[in-house]
Amino acid sequence: MTREEHLQSCKICKNQKYDPNQGIICGLTNSIATFQDQCEFLEEDSYLKEKKVKEDAQKELAQKTVGKGVRLANYILDFLFIIVLNILFYMLIAVIILVTNSSVENFMGSISDFILYLISFLISFIYYTALEGFSGRTMAKFITRTKVVAENGEKVTFNAIVLRSLCRFIPFDAFSFLNDDARGWHDTMSKTRVISVK
Q1: Distance separating alpha carbons of residues 111 and 83, to the nearest angstrom
Q2: pLDDT (average), residues 92-96
Q3: pLDDT recorded at residue 106
Q4: What is the predicted pLDDT for the residue at 76?
Q5: Beta-carbon neighbour count of residue 138 at 10 Å?
Q6: How far is CA 95 from CA 101, 103, 107, 148, in A?
Q7: For the chain, which terminus, N or C, has the lower number of CB atoms within 10 Å?
Q8: CA angle 71-73-76, nearest 5°?
Q9: In this structure, what DSSP letter does residue 152 have?
Q10: Residue 6 and residue 102: Cα distance in Å, rounded?
């Protein structure tokens, strides 16, 4: 067995102790493990076992967390889908204006820039909140086979999705995922991460 395979048992054993030169060693033999299949001195510690399970789950989750390239692809694709939704919304408004015989100039003149911004904000907010809230995935995430999960890997709560969607409107949030761990402000503030589901 390799040292790493030995450590799988040693890390959950009550008899383990730490040596600064060798790392985890057996407290009974004062040496690193040398057993072949199973350690005869193994006494599982429930606390250490639970801790190891959590550490292993976090490592696996970190390996599934997507990088900057995928995050950028998600951002660009979602941006395009939101543009299409905006266009469809204004086409619907145009149809309503035509059906009601209203004047386009009067209608557009009565809408302030703030209202136009608010409409775009609501379309984006609803897009992210509805899709991620119900499936953990936006249209872009379906394409890139990624998903939003809580930091611990479990299903994300709807409240966290709402917070995540709101945080997207913080100025320069789109660039915040360019850090080392490829997690943006909307991830860290909502305690979520984007993982691969391939």
Answers
A1: 19
A2: 84
A3: 65
A4: 94
A5: 22
A6: 10, 12, 12, 36
A7: C
A8: 110
A9: T
A10: 78
